[in-house]
Amino acid sequence: MGRMTEKDASGRWQVKGIPWEKLQAGQVITEEASQILYGCLWRLKDYEDSGLNPEQVTNLQYGAENMAAQVCDSLCRYREESTVQEELDEVCRGCPVNAVMGRIFGMRMRRRMYGEETQRDNN
Q1: Measured between alpha carbons, how far is 19 from 36 in angstroms, rounded to an integer?
Q2: Taking a C-beta distance cutoff of 8 angstroms, is the pair 15, 37 a contact?
Q3: Residue 98: C-alpha distances to residues 5, 18, 22, 27, 29 (Å)
Q4: Which residues contact 44 (CB under 8 A, 6 or more apart)?
Q5: Phi-psi region of 87 (alpha: psi -120 to 50; beta: other; left: phi over 0)
Q6: 73 or 15: which carries more pLDDT confidence?
């Protein structure tokens, strides 16, 4: 599931698909904007129902990434066959652990391990 927010060209946050100016006092809310806003509220409700705060969500994500990385580094048979990082990264792309992490978090879990920024794949 993708983000519901984005930055505009000037760096201001806005609801994805609705320019900030369209949400100012006096503006008519279109049917399309109404549907987008309702989707945002639905996702906010689901998030609030989880009972987790943003820090807990982040810690859960990093904890799962670190646990999966530990499993991979400890059990992966390819670890001993190659020391070339590009080859290991290619193996990881097809790894079942990476596939599970992708389904859970929508990301490639090995990015953070090697200093790359962790981002959602479905943005």
Answers
A1: 12
A2: yes
A3: 27, 34, 40, 46, 42
A4: none
A5: alpha
A6: 15
Mean pLDDT of the chain: 78
Does residue 107 surpass a pLDDT of 50? yes
Q: Which residue has the higher pLDDT, 102 or 51?
A: 51
For residue 23 the two structure tokens come to 């949400």
d(CA 107, CA 99): 9
Beta bridge partners of 15: 5
Tokens of 31: 């049917």
pLDDT of residue 110: 44
DSSP H helical ranges for the chain: 31-50, 54-75, 78-81, 85-93, 96-105, 110-113
- Report d(CA 118, CA 57) in Å as an integer: 14
CA distance 35 to 97: 36
Are 1 and 121 spatial neighbours (Cβ–Cβ below 8 Å)?
A: no
